Amino acid sequence: MRLHVVSGKGGTGKTTVAAALALALAAGGRKVLLVEVEGRQGIAQAFDLPPLPYEERKIAVAPGGGDVYALAIDPEEAMLEYLEMFYGIRRVGKALTRIGVVDFATTIAPGLRDVLVTGKTSEAVRRRDKLGRRVYDAVVMDAPPTGRISRFLNVTQEVAGLARVGPIKNHADLVRGVLASPETAVHFVTLLEEMPVQETLDGVAELRETGLPVGGVFVNMVRPALLPARALKAAAEGRFDAAEIALGLKAAGLADASAGASAIAEALAEEVAEHALRAELEKRERAELEEAGTPRYDLPLLPDGADLAGLYELADALRAQGAV
Asked: The ArsA/GET3 Anion-transporting ATPase-like domain covers which part of the protein (predicted)?
């Protein structure tokens, strides 16, 4: 795969997973471009960097010496590049920008904005150096949320109302060719919760209807199993005995008085019951995800948060599971 599009419901860690995927793909000496399309500077935050300009720049070294580059796409600058590429009128485009025409055009025709953004990403996928070699081994796009990913990527339909012939139409067809290519994969990030899982299933179905390639599902923030299955089952069924916990506390010297041990045991029993219910919910959601028929990869919940060290930990997890 040369283009990896990463989507997901808000709050699932979409940008974090996209950043980790870029690091995993770059491992071993490869060169990967990580693209942001929503203007949130999420990549800069993930790598603890100042806001990124509209240019491709190196932001990280992957395990084994690979390089990760980043690009925060600005639709206005992308339109100026488009005017230069197809019409040779970048200077006129800058004048239009000053009087607000560019912003006006992308406001009344939001499909054009998506074509410009996806077009810039597609150009990076196709780009070659003077020797004919690919500039980037892979491109990772931190894409819009699941709710609008199909419309965002379905550029041919979006531009149909703007132009049926001419450079814009030709450009949209070229972009569509890259996005629908067998070398492209659209991945989804989810949590083991009802709403993110349902949005993931809906997103997978919509992509398949529009003929766009579905990749894998990244299950983020997976909590480790803290108790054996037998104990979890008993807790979920209300059969977990707090008295046993009290005996264990006293035997371990953690509670001297019987009353104290009993109170602590009751509180711990409530925690166990909540954990058991959570484990049951996650088990059901995993079963729901099986309906998508896509590869699944688990990413652990990072106890210290998704800092730079955490990104490398997630990248290692992806590589260990064969996601790249």
From this structure: 1-159
